[in-house]
Amino acid sequence: MPRVTTKGQVTIPKEIRDALGIKPGDEITFKKSDAGYTIRKQAPTTADGDDPFEKYRGHADSDETMPDRMRRLRGEYPRGGDESPDETDNLEGDA
């Protein structure tokens, strides 16, 4: 049975953490009802209440694959379809 520490902390049993999907650092809420209190995992939000990942949702602005984009950003080849190396080309530093 969980106990309250002198700092007011309680360890939530693993079975409950697993059932609610609670991980270290997650925020939880307590809601009062006639039967007592319920505990819920708080959905991640920013200070203004928005979903912190909302600005990243949507469509890619390019048809470039992530590995190709990373190679281009590292300067391994310039942007462009025919100039991209294929699997048989040696990149800088490869033997």
Number of helices: 2
Structural class: alpha+beta
Mass-distribution shape:
elongated
| Rg calc | 25 Å
Tell me the distance between the termini: 62 Å
- Mean pLDDT score: 77
Describe, in plain words, how this protein is organized in 3D.
By secondary structure, this protein is of the alpha+beta class. It has a domain at 14-73. Helix content is 16%, strand content 13%. The protein has a two-stranded antiparallel ribbon. The longest helix has 8 residues, at 66-73. It starts with 13 loop residues before the first helix and ends in a 22-residue tail after the last helix.
State the main characteristics.
single chain; 95 residues; alpha+beta; two-stranded antiparallel ribbon; 2 helices
Layout of SSEs?
Blueprint: H1 14-20, E1 28-33, E2 36-41, H2 66-73
Antiparallel strand pairs: 1-2
Q: What's this model, at a glance?
A:
With 95 residues, this protein is of the alpha+beta class. 16% of the residues lie in helices and 13% in strands.
